[in-house]
């Protein structure tokens, strides 16, 4: 990833839920604070994210950025390593997973940014932090076909309980990638 390439998370949940903050912190760890912007953040929430990246109350829809690529599962084409290195901005929906997917990226983001390219990283849904992780791998020269994934993850939340997250997980050393903080959060919460 070139130092001048920026990943933008357009926050699209009605509130900045603890689950969102955990994912945004995880994104900052993946790509570093200097390559990360959070947009569409309410004034009162800005201080909760400032340690993880640049924070703006403006929506990315108002920024009119040139040479940008929206990551959208509904986009017809898949992002390749060859083209990825030429984009200046990668825009992701700060959207929590929903099952079945409601095409929120397309409806709430892509539709409004006409001058951006749009690409998928496969048709299945990743969490926002894992989508950023996959795009970083693509930027490092690995195409999607060369990566390994696991469908769903089951997190034990008690002796007899567990929660299933029905998304696609990149495998790192044969284990699905999920932030440790999210696992702890789910265990404490005992599910949703
Ligand atoms: C949990 S996903 C939200 C998916 C939402 N249910 C939808 O249908 O659009 C959060 C963000 O990660 C990115 N993302 C996740 N999976 C993706 C995929 N297969 N292709 C492209 N982007 C993806 C998108 O930017 C998306 O807005």
Low-confidence stretches: none
Distance between the termini: 35 Å
Major beta-sheet overview: 6 strands, parallel
Strand order of the largest sheet: 3-2-1-5-4-6
**Residue share in helices?**
25-40%
Strand content: 15-25%
The distinct ligands, each listed once, are: S-adenosylmethionine
Number of helices: 6
Give the number of domains: 1
Total strand segments: 9
Question: C-alpha Rg, in Å?
Answer: 16 Å
Verbal overview:
- With 192 residues, the chain is of the alpha/beta class.
- It has a single domain (6-142), classed as Alpha/beta knot (3-Layer(aba) Sandwich), CATH 3.40.1280.
- 26% of the residues lie in helices and 24% in strands.
- It is built from 6 helices and 9 strands, in the order βαβαββαβαβαβββα.
- It has a 6-stranded parallel beta sheet, covered by helices on one side. Strands 7-8-9 form a 3-stranded antiparallel beta sheet.
- The mean pLDDT is 95.
- It binds S-adenosylmethionine (SAM).
- S-adenosylmethionine (SAM) binds at residues 71-73, 92-93, 95, 97-98, 101-105, 120-122, 124-128, 131.
Topology:
Layout: E1 6-11, H1 18-31, E2 36-39, H2 46-49, E3 54-55, E4 68-71, H3 81-84, E5 89-94, H4 104-108, E6 117-119, H5 128-139, E7 149-156, E8 162-172, E9 175-176, H6 180-189
Helix pairs in contact: 1-5
This protein binds S-adenosylmethionine.
S-adenosylmethionine is lined by residues 71-73, 92-93, 95, 97-98, 101-105, 120-122, 124-128, 131.
């Amino acid at each position: 990833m070139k130092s001048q390439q920026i990943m933008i998370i357009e926050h699209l949940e009605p509130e900045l839920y603890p689950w969102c903050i955990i994912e945004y912190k995880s994104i900052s760890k993946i790509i570093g604070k200097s390559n990360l912007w959070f947009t569409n953040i309410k004034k009162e929430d800005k201080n909760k994210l400032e340690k993880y990246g640049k924070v703006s109350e403006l929506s990315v829809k108002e920024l009119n950025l040139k040479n940008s690529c929206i990551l959208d599962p509904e986009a017809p084409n898949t992002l390749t390593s060859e083209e990825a290195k030429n984009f200046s901005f990668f825009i992701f929906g700060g959207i929590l997973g929903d099952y079945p997917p409601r095409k929120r990226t397309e409806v709430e983001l892509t539709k409004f940014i006409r001058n951006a390219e749009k690409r998928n990283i496969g048709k299945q849904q990743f969490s926002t932090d894992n989508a950023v992780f996959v795009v970083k791998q693509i930027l490092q020269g690995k195409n999607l076909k060369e990566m390994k994934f696991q469908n769903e993850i089951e997190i034990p939340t008690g002796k007899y309980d567990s929660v299933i997250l029905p998304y696609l997980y990149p495998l790192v050393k044969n284990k699905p990638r999920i932030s440790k903080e999210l696992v702890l959060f789910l265990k404490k919460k005992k599910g949703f």
